[in-house]
């Protein structure tokens, strides 16, 4: 028989096994043991070690004077056979009058209830008996011995035993229930398979696998039919303990016993694998089960669909749903809900909506939970209008709308600034008998704060308190933050005082809101004083407060002070949050202080934290801007080494830096490396490369370079780059067209330049001042001042203001033209 190694060892050594289990089960002094065991006892030698205590309590006997009375009561009860209600009332009345029943009277009433098939009353009776037995030391074995003498029908005796086992699961601990089971077994009273299932389920809930397996073994030794339900309980317990192979071995044992495993067992096995995260295995067993012609219910299908969905294998999950329908198993709300949730979680709203429509088409009513998945996804995608429309459609269908859905849509209205609609929804909730909680009120307050309607925010807060809905720290923080953002700093601090009066201590986030509010309100000195006080009280060591003060300095334009504070606390082991450190590096780079920005970056690394992607981006951009491509490349290589994937923006930043530093070879290599690594260049990247090629072209033209060879090389590079754009399906924008037009003008190819200009307009793109200036420059260089002046007039007619560079080029062109005419 399969067991855990520990249980196997115990079962091989009965003495050791009895010590362990007896220690746990012998605390059942309130349930006295049988006084003797006969050779005919059904209990095996091994299990006898489990139930035999070191000392045997003597069962309490009724006084001799009561024997005559007990006989008369027993006879009276026998006269009431067939009248269980009357008999039970008589039995209880006699107890109320002070009569103490013995085995004969107990067995008589049990017989009446069993013969009348009053199972529930019998279970209740045994529950009372177990409780009274704790006080009077009543011996259960004696009762069943007496009952056996009265009953000729073994099925009625089994019914009584089953009721006793059921009562034990209601009134006793698992250990004591097992003890009672073993006590009955020792006297030859064997429960039915159904009762054994009830007992095993009760023990399994306690999570003691050893006892489950030991009792299961004993049931088999007693000849109890190991039905599907019984084996399924053990299999489930093994799966819950993570013993998958052992669970499968039980399944094999059931097959070897000649019993064909029922759908119940297969369902338990499939669900067990899914519960352990082995979704593929669960799916495989499900398919094998179906091939063998065994029916699988929708609940089991849902377990596998849910597992595949959790594993992000949504196509497989959807395929299984379709197979389930083909096999005649009707899906339920949960079947579709799993897939809708999965598609929403992965951002595929369109497919989620398709599943919703399919669900409705199959006349399966969606519930509020499913709709909440869709509404959350709408809102995360910024589709708040669509979320509101979908909510209204669902509400109009007459289906139940719960508090969660109302909360989602209240937030959606708040984000859109539709505060009147949000407030109306709160009233609607109340009219429908739904009680808004502090979450609903807090979200409405947040909406008013974001819109700057602080009077209404305060009004909602007051209404909340009036209705005995206690605001939590989050509510206070939202309102305090709103006051600060909108310049009501005094009101924010009044609110904090009010919070303290109500016995709620501000947390670090509350203080950070106060600091942020003071800084936004232009009261940096007050923020510094508050931070200093918190620092003295050791509260400012918290990263939240530290971050708020750094951001406060940055908000006030005090980048140097923010840097000094960052360095101070970083050396003490406290690091600001991601937003604050990215902001600090960004502001330092914007101020051109790359040295300090790099110092911040190094401090982050020294604390064994990988800098955030924006930190890398900002610093690489700063180095590229000043032409320090050595350090820019080092940072880029470190970025890749950290396992991060550079996107087209980062590649383009570095390529632009190389082009600006006249390192065209490095720029080209990086550009093609980007393509090789699977990052598709966008129109900006191509424009940067075109601009780089133009720079290189002009440099070579000014040098002593063969004109024909120069033109051939230029055309090759130009064609190669344009072909690459077509292959990548990158469409030209107005900036790219401008670069190409400028290229052709500088190549003295005005015909192609103007052709591109017309093509650009034909595609609906509007030339800007730079585009016109490039073309005007080309015509001026060719001496065609009339055409250039015509383009300037066209610019003015279109409302495009020529720049000073445009007029400068035109003036210079005119002077050159006049000079040539004079010559």
UniProtKB/TrEMBL annotation:
InterPro entries: PPR/CCM1_RNA-binding, PPR_rpt, TPR-like_helical_dom_sf. PANTHER family: PENTATRICOPEPTIDE REPEAT DOMAIN CONTAINING PROTEIN-RELATED, TETRATRICOPEPTIDE REPEAT (TPR)-LIKE SUPERFAMILY PROTEIN-RELATED. Pfam families: PPR (PF01535), PPR_1 (PF12854), PPR_2 (PF13041), PPR_3 (PF13812). This is PPR repeat. The keyword Ribonucleoprotein does not apply. Keywords: Repeat. PPR repeats lie at residues 227-261, 262-296, 297-331, 332-366, 402-436, 437-471, 472-506, 507-541, 577-611, 612-646, 647-681, 733-767, 768-802. SUPFAM superfamilies: TPR-like. It comes from the Eukaryota.
């Amino acid at each position: 028989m399969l067991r855990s190694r520990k249980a196997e060892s115990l079962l091989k050594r009965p003495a050791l096994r009895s010590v362990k289990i007896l220690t746990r089960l012998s605390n059942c002094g309130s349930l006295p043991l049988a006084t003797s065991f006969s050779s005919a006892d059904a209990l095996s030698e091994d299990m006898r070690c489990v139930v035999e205590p070191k000392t045997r309590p003597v069962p309490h006997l009724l006084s001799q004077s009561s024997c005559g009375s007990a006989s008369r009561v027993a006879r009276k009860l026998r006269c009431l056979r067939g009248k269980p209600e009357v008999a039970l009332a008589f039995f209880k009345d006699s107890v109320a009058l002070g009569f103490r029943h013995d085995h004969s009277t107990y067995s008589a009433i049990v017989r009446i209830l069993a013969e009348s098939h009053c199972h529930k009353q019998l279970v209740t009776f045994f529950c009372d008996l177990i409780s009274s037995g704790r006080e009077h030391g009543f011996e259960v074995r004696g009762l069943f011995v007496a009952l056996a003498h009265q009953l000729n029908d073994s099925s009625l005796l089994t019914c009584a035993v089953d009721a006793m086992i059921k009562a034990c699961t209601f009134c006793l601990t698992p250990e004591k229930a097992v003890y009672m089971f073993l006590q009955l077994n020792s006297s030859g009273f064997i429960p039915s398979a159904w009762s054994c299932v009830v007992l095993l389920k009760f023990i399994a809930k306690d999570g003691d696998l050893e006892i489950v397996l030991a009792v299961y073994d004993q049931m088999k030794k007693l000849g109890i039919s190991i039905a599907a339900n019984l084996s399924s309980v053990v299999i489930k317990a093994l799966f819950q303990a993570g013993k998958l192979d052992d669970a499968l071995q039980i399944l094999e044992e059931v097959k070897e016993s000649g019993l064909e495993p029922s759908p119940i067992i297969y369902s338990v096995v499939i669900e067990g694998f899914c519960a352990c995260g082995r979704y593929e295995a669960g799916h495989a067993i499900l398919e094998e089960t179906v091939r063998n012609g065994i029916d699988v219910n929708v609940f089991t299908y849902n377990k596998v669909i849910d597992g595949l969905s959790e594993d992000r294998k949504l196509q497989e999950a959807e395929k299984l749903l379709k197979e389930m329908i083909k096999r005649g198993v009707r899906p339920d709300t949960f079947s579709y809900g799993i897939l809708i949730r999965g598609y929403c979680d992965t951002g595929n709203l369109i497919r989620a909506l398709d599943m919703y429509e399919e669900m409705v088409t199959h006349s399966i009513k969606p519930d509020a939970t499913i709709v909440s998945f869709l509404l959350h996804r709408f809102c995360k995608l910024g589709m708040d209008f669509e979320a509101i429309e979908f909510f209204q459609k669902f509400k109009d269908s007459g289906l139940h709308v719960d508090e969660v859905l109302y909360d989602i849509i209240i937030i959606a209205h708040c984000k859109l600034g539709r505060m009147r609609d949000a407030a109306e929804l709160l009233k609607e909730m109340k009219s429908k008998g739904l009680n808004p909680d502090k979450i609903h009120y807090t979200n409405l307050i947040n909406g008013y704060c974001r819109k700057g309607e602080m009077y209404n925010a305060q009004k909602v807060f007051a209404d909340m308190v009036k209705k005995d809905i206690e605001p939590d720290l989050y509510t206070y923080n939202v309102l305090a933050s709103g006051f600060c953002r909108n310049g009501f700093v005094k009101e924010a601090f009044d609110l904090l005082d009010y919070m303290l009066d109500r016995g709620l201590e501000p947390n670090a986030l509350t203080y950070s809101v106060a600091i942020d509010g003071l800084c936004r309100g232009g009261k940096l000195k007050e923020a510094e004083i508050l931070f200093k006080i918190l620092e003295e009280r050791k509260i400012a060591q918290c990263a939240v407060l530290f971050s708020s003060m750094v951001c406060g300095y940055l908000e006030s334009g005090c980048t140097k002070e923010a840097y000094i504070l960052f360095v101070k606390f970083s050396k003490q082991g406290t690091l600001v949050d991601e937003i604050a450190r990215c902001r600090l590096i960004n502001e330092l780079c914007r101020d051109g202080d790359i040295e300090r920005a790099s110092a911040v970056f190094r401090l982050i690394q020294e604390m064994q934290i990988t800098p955030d992607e924006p930190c890398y981006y900002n610093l690489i951009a700063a180095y590229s801007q000043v032409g320090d491509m050595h350090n820019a490349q080092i940072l880029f290589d470190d970025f890749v080494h950290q396992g991060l994937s550079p996107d087209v923006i980062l590649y383009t930043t570095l390529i632009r830096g190389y082009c600006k530093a006249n390192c065209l070879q490095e720029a080209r290599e990086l550009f093609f490396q980007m393509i090789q690594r699977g990052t598709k260049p966008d129109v900006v990247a191509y424009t940067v490369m075109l601009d780089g090629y133009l720079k290189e072209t002009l440099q070579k033209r000014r040098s002593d370079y063969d004109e024909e060879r120069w033109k051939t090389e230029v055309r090759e590079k130009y064609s190669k780059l344009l072909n690459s754009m077509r292959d990548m399906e990158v469409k030209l924008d107005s900036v790219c067209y401008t670069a190409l037009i400028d290229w052709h003008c500088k190549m003295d190819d005005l015909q192609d330049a103007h052709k591109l200009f017309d093509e650009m307009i034909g595609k609906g793109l509007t030339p800007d001042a730079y585009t016109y200036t490039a073309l005007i420059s080309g015509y001026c260089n060719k001496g065609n001042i009339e055409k250039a002046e015509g383009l300037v007039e066209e610019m003015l007619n279109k409302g495009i203001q020529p720049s000073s560079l445009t007029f400068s080029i035109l003036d210079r062109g005119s002077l050159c033209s006049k000079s040539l005419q004079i010559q």
